[in-house]
Amino acid sequence: MILFILLFALETLIALTLHGGFIRSYMGDVIVVWVVYCFVQAILGGKNNHYIVALSVMFFAFLVEFLQGIHIVDILGLSDNAFLRTVIGTSFSWVDLVCYAVGTAVEVLGIWTAENYLLKK
Questions:
Q1: Using CA atoms, how far apart are residues 115 and 99, in angstroms rounded to an integer?
Q2: How far apart are CA 46 and CA 38, in angstroms?
Q3: 18: which of 24, 50, 72, 94 fits an S-S bond (Cβ 3.0–4.6 Å)?
Q4: Terminal CA-to-CA distance of the chain, rounded, Å?
Q5: Alpha-carbon span 119 to 90, nearest angstrom
Q6: b (16+ CB within 10 A) / e for 93-104
Q7: Each residue of 9-20: pLDDT tens digit?
Q8: Alpha-carbon gap, residue 53 to 56, rounded angstroms
Q9: Do residues 54 and 100 make contact, with C-beta atoms less than 8 angstroms apart?
Q10: CA atoms of 61 and 63, how far apart (whole Å)
Q11: 3-state class of 120 per DSSP?
Q12: Is a pLDDT exceeding 90 seen at residue 55?
């Protein structure tokens, strides 16, 4: 949960202070899968297959991105809600899908490294 809070704070800082550039445009999308992964693991207690959770989060991010492509915010009548427009997003991008995949790959590499090197006795 602590890692979730720290990563969420970082994502919020990026969203509120940066208006373009590499970090806002790409790293924010890489980091968001880490934020959601940490939140899900905190809720589930970490007693599950970490790889399945990581891939599930990536597919969830893909789903949200595709929903942006069909303008789900407008369909749900949330166009006037700035907060939900920001959280859900309003535009589809193939690059975002790549960023989610890269974030998940880094996450899976971290899980594998922890399991095979850091947590071995």
A1: 24
A2: 9
A3: 24
A4: 25
A5: 41
A6: eeebbebbbebb
A7: 999 899 889 888
A8: 5
A9: no
A10: 5
A11: coil
A12: yes
Residue with tokens 């859900």: 88
Q: How many residues does the chain have?
A: 121
Spatial distance between the Cα atoms of 111 and 54, rounded to a whole number of angstroms: 9
**Structure pTM?**
0.89
**Do the Cβ atoms of 38 and 4 come closer than 8 Å?**
yes
Listed residue (118, 96, 109) closest to 25, CA to CA: 96
Closest by Cα among 9, 3, 6, 11 to 86: 11
Using CA atoms, how far apart are residues 60 and 92, in angstroms rounded to an integer? 14
| Residue 68: domain span | 2-118
76-113 pLDDT, tens per residue?
Answer: 999 999 888 888 888 999 999 999 999 999 999 999 99
Contacts of 87 (CB under 8 A, 6+ apart): none
